[in-house]
Structure prediction request, 344 residues.
Amino acid sequence: MKNILVVEDESGHAELIVRALADADYTAVVVCTLAEARAEIARQTPLLALVDHNLPDGAGRELMSLAAGVFPVVTMTAHGDELLAVQAIKSGAVDYVVKSPEAFSELPHTIERALRDWNLDLERRQMQQALRESEERYRRITEGLTDYLYSVRVAEGRAVSTTHAAACVAVTGYLAEEFALDPYLWFNMIVPEDRARVTIQTQRILAGVQVPPMEHRIVRKDGVTRWVIDTPILHRDPVGGIVSYDGVVRDITERKEAEAAREHLITSLQHALANVKKLAGLLPICAGCKQIRDDKGYWNQVETYIEEHTGTRFTHGMCPDCLKKYFPEFAGSETPPGATSASP
Prediction:
């Protein structure tokens, strides 16, 4: 499709433009106003638009927002309006033409140049967008990393050089180049309380001992303390000596925090259970009438409370002391009144 949208309200100029474009095998679609141009763009996207600066219903640059990123625009001005043309280019036009018979005859070349510049600019913008997306994707991947590799070269039982992979920045906040410039940076990052353990671990590795992974804390470049686990992999020469070892450093802060939260919860539950048991062993009983208060705040006879909570049934009789107190006449009887009665 080689349709060129021509937005020109002067019929004489429009006719000259149509002839010039026809000679170059372009099809001109001519409209006279901004409103007609908008309708035509909505109906069919042109290959390019030639737009007069001054139109009956507004300035031609008003079409720039519709054209942006979709098709190129070449603005047309009368002689002496070059300043307006420059403003149009700042608004998004690819080129401008000062109206004249010579300029109209050269329109095919102007259009070819404008299309070439437009396509180059479009390709550049697409490459920039792809680069931004690639950088953003790399940033997300880097931020999502929780481990990285390092390698240590060993000679005569000593570590002589260490190389950190680029992903170290995700875990430590430092670049690999910063580790290369400061051989003691990694050790200085270790929380002081953990340094002795790490030193012993390193000495055992250099002695050829295959050690298990070690968990310790580091202070990132941003000052945040993180937990890491360091898993060493030893490489030996034919006689078993250590020539190098690799390490995998993984950020395990979330796991350690989850473990600490779980331990705290367990401790809290154990304390709560101990308090429940302690409270369960206490009964609120009246010092006078010996009634017991239940969980709802009601006071109950001792036997009523125990029956409800244990299922125990009570028999009601009298001890010798109470018999003498309340029924002295039966004090010598072998069968006190009510001694065999049972509560329902």
